What we know:
The longest helix has 19 residues. A hairpin with a 2-residue loop joins strand 7 and strand 8. 36% of the residues lie in helices and 20% in strands. It is globular, with a radius of gyration of 19 Å. It contains 8 helices and 13 strands.
Amino acid sequence: MDNKKIGLIAGYGEFPLIYVKELKLKGFSVCVCAIEEEADKSLSEYTDSITYVSVGELGKLIKFFRSEQVDEIIMAGKVRKTLMFKKVKPDLKAITLFLSLKDKKDDTILNAISQFLEQEGLKIVEQTKYITSVFSTKGVISNRKPTSKEMEDIEFGFNTAKLIAGADIGQTVVVKDRSVMAVEAIEGTDETIIRGGKLACGGAVVIKVNKPDQDLRFDVPAVGVSTIEAMASVEATCISFEKNTIIINKGEFIKRANEAGIAVYIM
Length: 267
């Protein structure tokens, strides 16, 4: 591959770093625009060029990628929506964009940003385009299989999770005895697990789904070691998610699940 350049917008978590390393192995030069409030500072050790922007600095982001002459951009990692309610100082481009939004749902914001960047000549590509190591096939990937009772909760929770995902509220529910303990909203998956797990008093099942017609350019569901740690802290016993969910540090994720006796079932 003729040292092709690619851009990456790096948000919160380990996924951007994993993605950068994978792209480098494939022969890419990687130019990273890191969200200052979110991105791992160690990214600079692995990238060919990097700049940091605050949430709302769309003009600086566009200027950077244009100067690097990249053809494609990947969005990797979360930008926690709670930042929208803090002291963000958007530039003129961001103000113009946000004033045009009909609401502040995740899909509304991300679609608007993607369309805006593409109008500026920056093509957003699917998060799944250049990486496969973070996914797994259907079935049980842990030592312990879900019990029949846990499978009933998975089936029950799946339908509920799809409803909230379709409404762009969240993608995770916590269930026990076919009763919803918690529904994900702005706080994110781990906090939802802890909240629901405490209410369940042990034995909760976590279900995470894709949105209907999931846009693979952004907001692809993800789990990781922190997910298992959150479950273990409230004695949740089983997690189930769909096959195109990103599993961050898959080997360690499975190892920690096995250590905690947590069943992991991929739908």
